[in-house]
Recover the amino acids of this structure.
């Protein structure tokens, strides 16, 4: 698989503050990459460096196989981006905003502009919005318009920063469907978010940023692979402990963690002992557990330097 | 968080430095350019002072056009009737000039929102005031109040040099004026009574035309008058440029600017003036009213005249308002740069006025030497 | 890119509101002048205003002279100060740059848009001035008097008026360049505008100060009124050429600085 985003030792220093501290991102074609991190962990700075908005202090960025920010003029037309909040000219309609954005850079042919704008508005669910100026849009509509702007040139790579911000649950689900559909069509998606659930539902690969360092980067499947233990739900946990003495790792109310990766084997033992089993599954760590284990503290906390 | 500023310093300084260097070079070149042009060497010439003066006096037929600026540092305490004369010596005056000869020239005093054009022909002058839309015709008189053309370096320099003696002259190097090489000539008045320390005249090497005149008073380092050309073109201007026809819609008037002085002098009647005052010999000036006595030579001049009592009262009040005025029993005197002014009001005679480019001591001396001019108040 | 910026500027209601406000003052002055028939005294008031009473065809020039010292530069500073900082504040700058609209190209396009605004504004002021002048005052298209007291033919008057309009537009470029440069250094359009106006006020103040006379020829506002020189006869080119050169220097230096700053800065807005 070819690399879509590859950084080597990427770092950004603001004065004495290391906002991004030598990260090696590796996003491959076809990935839905979840870029996780608390607020202030350096996510936004990294996204901006990828797009050539912020110039790195050190390190290299390859985007779609070309060096950024030098090759920005060739590469960026193939990338769609939603950077933090969406933004548009309030006095113009969404349609005009998209037309202006399309005309502002290379790679947007003029003759099919009108059609592409109409298509993309339809795609994000703004097809019937008409000539209303953007300043009359709701937050969710603006978010959809921002996404439309990112999709305008059928990009190979979508870089999205908190794309479901401001959407209602219905909208979130719609956008998720849209992203998955784009992904099926071959678009690589780089999704920066602090919402674990969103990433867990969408992403195939995860990177975790903690205070400027990439503390974790792996396939979601690997991270949440079975641990070799089985989770048993039972109204009588004390009887489980008695029956499987030594194999019980933890008891938490009706939830008992039993060593041994084969639920069938555990089930046979418990049923044989006449213990009621209401639930049975191989133990998998949640993404939350993985992230919390990797990222020590919240970056919002300001600790005294040692 | 002051992200933007900090970022600008830290981020890609390597990328920013060469670009700012480009800006720095551009700024340096632009800033240095006037200094470099100004520092271009000026060729001096070994012409002796007397010869240079002769060249200037011989160059009275040079035709030219140009742009001159005169800056006066004199606050003359005069009455409202002579405001225009006072402005001439206290303000910055910008002048365009087209000179075909003493009887055929045009001097436009340029202001931000208009101009006053003085067109001289053989019989007199037209004065065009744009903002009043007025054209004023005045017949030529041998005696006239100072006007903008008198402040041109060319006319003023020639006038001041014409009465200087060779002993008063020294050469003072060369400099660049209006983009031309100018040779310096300094007049140091010999008269002890003079309030003028020196007059520097810078003369165009090629044509003999004075390009700059700087008058320094006895007490000050700030020139009492500094007039210079900023642009000079030595080709003869078109006759159509100096001519003037009142435009349609303009108010046309006739006036005698010198009327005030002439009228005053005529009314006073002839007065018997002594032959010398404060060591300055009496001189005659064609057309000057007989009621005015003129003394001195070159840049050292003294004028004496009786004044009507009413005018004297007004003048005394004006002078008394100035903190620099020196008052005693019968007189009040004041110095404005190199120009001294003294009003004497004896108990038993008509008041009289002494003024000129002489020191206050010389004014006192002259006043004491004056016979009582006219008995009877 | 330039077309995009022009569309953005001229589709914006605020642009036209600014131009309308700019025209209000000369119209008000004209109405008052007709009503009271009191011409400004010589040496006071804007150039050409007293001449307008006898020839309304000169009102475009009087209108320009009225807005030139303050209103016009403020309008230019507002628009130019908003050009980059306004996009930064609205958040659209990051989308434009990620589009990617090259930074240098964006800067040039912004400058061209500001130029277009200056030109349109000056033309509108002159056109409205002409309408007002010819309807409210006696217009004598055949006989205009130059500042020097000579008669100008209608063709001469027209040519010189066009030159004056051009000169006034060029005079505004220095302010525009200052505002554009400040606009690249901040995310606040108001800050950029205020910066340019501070330069303007400083320049106007220093110009009146004798102590500042050594630097007076380099002040950006020094030669603004030189458009009057076009109506002297012969035309006094001295200050006009100096004014053009000075504006060119300011524009060149400030654009270079804006470019050096903008192309190497982190866009964090």
């Amino acid at each position: 698989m070819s690399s879509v985003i590859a950084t080597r030792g990427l770092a950004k220093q603001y004065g004495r503050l290391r906002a991004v501290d030598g990260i090696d991102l590796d996003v491959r074609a076809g990935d839905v990459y979840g870029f996780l991190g608390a607020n202030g962990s350096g996510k936004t700075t990294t996204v901006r460096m990828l797009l050539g908005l912020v110039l790195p202090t050190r390190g290299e960025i390859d985007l779609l196989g070309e060096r950024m920010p030098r090759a920005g003029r060739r590469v960026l037309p193939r990338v769609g981006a939603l950077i933090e909040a969406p933004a548009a000219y309030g006095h113009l309609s969404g349609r005009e905003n998209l037309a202006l954005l399309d005309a502002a850079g290379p790679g947007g042919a003029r003759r099919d502009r009108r059609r592409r704008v109409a298509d993309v508005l339809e795609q994000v669910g703004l097809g019937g919005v008409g000539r209303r100026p953007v300043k009359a849009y709701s937050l969710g509509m603006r978010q959809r318009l921002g996404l439309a702007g990112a999709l305008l040139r059928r990009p190979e790579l979508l870089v999205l920063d908190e794309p479901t911000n401001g959407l209602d649950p219905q909208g979130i689900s719609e956008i998720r469907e849209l992203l998955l559909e784009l992904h099926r069509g071959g678009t690589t998606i780089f999704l920066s978010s602090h919402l674990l659930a969103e990433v867990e539902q969408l992403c195939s690969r995860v990177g975790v940023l903690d205070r400027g360092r990439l503390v974790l980067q792996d396939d979601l499947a690997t991270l949440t692979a079975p641990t070799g233990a089985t989770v048993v739900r039972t109204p009588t946990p004390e009887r489980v402990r008695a029956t499987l003495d030594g194999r019980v790792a933890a008891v938490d109310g009706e939830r008992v963690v039993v060593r041994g990766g084969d639920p069938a084997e555990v089930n046979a033992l418990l049923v044989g002992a006449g213990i009621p089993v209401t639930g049975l599954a191989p133990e998998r760590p949640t993404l939350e557990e993985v992230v919390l284990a990797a990222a020590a503290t919240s970056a919002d906390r300001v600790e005294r330097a040692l | 968080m002051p992200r933007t500023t900090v970022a600008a310093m830290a981020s890609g300084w390597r990328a920013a430095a060469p670009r700012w260097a480009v800006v720095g070079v551009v700024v340096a070149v632009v800033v240095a350019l006037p200094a470099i042009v100004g520092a271009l060497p000026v060729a001096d010439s070994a012409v002796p002072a007397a010869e240079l003066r002769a060249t200037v006096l011989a160059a009275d037929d040079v035709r030219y056009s140009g742009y001159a600026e005169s800056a006066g540092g004199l606050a003359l305490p005069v009455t409202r009737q002579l405001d225009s004369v006072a402005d001439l010596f206290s303000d910055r005056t910008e002048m365009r000039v087209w000179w075909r000869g003493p009887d055929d020239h045009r001097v436009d005093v340029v202001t931000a929102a208009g101009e006053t054009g003085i067109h001289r022909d053989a019989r007199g002058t037209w004065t065009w005031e744009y903002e009043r839309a007025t054209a004023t015709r005045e017949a030529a008189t041998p005696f006239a109040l100072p006007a903008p053309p008198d402040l041109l370096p060319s006319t003023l320099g020639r006038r001041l040099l014409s009465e200087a003696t060779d002993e008063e002259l020294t050469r003072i190097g060369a400099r660049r004026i209006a983009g031309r090489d100018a040779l310096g000539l300094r007049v140091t008045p010999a008269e002890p009574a003079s309030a003028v320390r020196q007059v520097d005249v810078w003369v165009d090497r090629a044509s003999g035309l004075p390009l700059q005149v700087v008058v320094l008073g006895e007490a000050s380092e700030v020139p009492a008058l500094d007039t210079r050309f900023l642009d000079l073109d030595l080709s003869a201007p078109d006759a159509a440029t100096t001519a003037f026809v009142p435009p349609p819609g303009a108010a046309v008037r006739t006036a005698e600017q010198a009327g005030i002085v002439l009228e005053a002098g005529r009314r006073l009647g002839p007065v018997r003036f002594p032959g010398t005052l404060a060591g300055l010999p009496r001189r005659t000036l064609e057309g000057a009213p007989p009621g005015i006595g003129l003394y001195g030579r070159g840049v050292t001049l003294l004028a004496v005249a009786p004044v009507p009592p009413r005018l004297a009262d007004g003048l005394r009040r004006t002078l008394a308002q100035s903190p620099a005025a020196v008052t005693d029993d019968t007189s009040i005197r004041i110095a404005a740069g190199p120009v001294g002014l003294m009003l004497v009001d004896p108990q038993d005679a008509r008041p009289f006025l002494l003024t000129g480019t002489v020191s206050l001591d010389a004014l006192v001396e002259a006043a004491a030497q004056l016979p009582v001019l006219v008995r009877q108040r | 890119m330039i077309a995009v910026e022009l569309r953005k500027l001229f589709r914006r209601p605020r642009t036209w509101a600014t131009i309308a406000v700019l025209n209000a003052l000369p119209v008000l002055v004209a109405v008052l002048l007709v009503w009271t028939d009191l011409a400004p005294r010589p040496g006071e008031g804007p150039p050409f205003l007293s001449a307008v009473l006898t020839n309304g065809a000169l009102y475009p020039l009087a209108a320009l002279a009225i807005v030139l010292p303050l209103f016009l530069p403020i309008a230019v500073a507002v628009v130019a100060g908003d050009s980059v900082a306004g996009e930064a504040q609205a958040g659209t700058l990051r989308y434009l740059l990620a589009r990617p609209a090259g930074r240098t190209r964006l800067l040039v396009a912004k400058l061209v848009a500001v130029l277009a605004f200056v030109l349109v504004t000056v033309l509108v002021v002159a056109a409205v001035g002409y309408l007002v002048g010819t309807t409210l005052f006696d217009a004598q298209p055949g006989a205009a008097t130059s500042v020097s007291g000579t008669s100008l033919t209608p063709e001469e008057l027209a040519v010189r008026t066009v030159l004056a309009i051009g000169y006034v537009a060029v005079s505004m470029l220095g302010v525009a360049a200052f505002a554009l440069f400040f606009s690249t250094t901040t995310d606040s359009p108001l800050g950029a505008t205020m910066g340019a106006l501070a330069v303007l006020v400083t320049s106007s103040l220093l110009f009146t100060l004798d102590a500042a006379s050594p630097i007076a020829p380099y002040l950006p506002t020094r030669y603004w009124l030189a458009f009057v020189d076009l109506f002297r006869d012969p035309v006094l080119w001295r200050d006009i050429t100096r004014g053009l050169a000075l504006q060119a220097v300011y524009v060149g230096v400030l654009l270079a600085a804006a470019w050096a700053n903008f192309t190497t800065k982190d866009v964090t807005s």
Notes: The CA atoms of residues 32 and 38 of chain C lie 9 Å apart. The radius of gyration of chain C is 20 Å. Strands of chain C lie at 144-145, 151-152.
